[in-house]
């Protein structure tokens, strides 16, 4: 379990997806996203959300992401935030 103090350190923001392209070098099917967080700027993210969404329909959608993780290198790409999602009955996000 985490403490309330730990939870308060999490910075979750709403952002708008500007770009979504297939991430060919990822181990699991993913998109490389560019997300606009307003005053925080544009951040990159890798998201395994290909089962339910085409790259075209993601443009303009709003997502919630944790924006204060350190960048994580995934293949040749640096993910700067973690897009949050939920699983459906078939374990798709």
Order of helices and strands: HEEEHEEEE
Order of the strands making up the biggest sheet: 3-2-1-4-7
Strand tally, please?
7
Residues in β-strands, percent: 35-45%
Radius of gyration: 13 Å
> Low-confidence runs (pLDDT<50, min 5 residues)?
none
Q: Tally the structural domains.
A: 1
* Secondary-structure-derived class: mainly beta
Helix share bin: under 10%
Distance N to C terminus: 24 Å
* CATH top-level class: Mainly Beta
CATH topology: OB fold (Dihydrolipoamide Acetyltransferase, E2P)
Largest sheet: 5 strands, antiparallel
Give the overall silhouette: globular
CATH superfamily: Nucleic acid-binding proteins
Q: Number of DSSP helices?
A: 2
Q: If you average the pLDDT, what whole number results?
A: 96
Which second-level CATH architecture applies?
Beta Barrel
Can you walk me through this structure?
The chain is mainly β and 93 residues long. Helix content is 10%, strand content 39%. It has a single domain, classed as Nucleic acid-binding proteins (OB fold (Dihydrolipoamide Acetyltransferase, E2P)). The strands form two sheets. It has a five-stranded antiparallel sheet. Strands 5-6 form a two-stranded antiparallel sheet. It is globular and about 35 Å long. The model has no long low-confidence stretch (mean pLDDT 96).
Question: What order do the helices and strands come in, and which of them pair?
Answer:
Layout: H1 4-8, E1 12-22, E2 31-36, E3 42-47, H2 55-58, E4 62-66, E5 72-74, E6 77-79, E7 82-83
Antiparallel strand pairs: 1-2, 1-4, 2-3, 4-7, 5-6
């Amino acid at each position: 379990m985490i403490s309330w103090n730990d939870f308060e350190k999490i910075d979750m923001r709403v952002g708008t997806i500007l770009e979504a392209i297939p991430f060919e070098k990822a181990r699991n099917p993913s998109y490389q996203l560019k997300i606009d967080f307003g005053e925080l700027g544009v951040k990159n993210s890798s998201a395994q959300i290909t089962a339910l969404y085409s790259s075209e329909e993601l443009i303009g959608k709003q997502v919630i992401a944790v924006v204060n993780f350190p960048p994580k290198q995934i293949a040749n790409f640096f993910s700067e935030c973690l897009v949050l999602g939920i699983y459906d009955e078939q374990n798709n996000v």
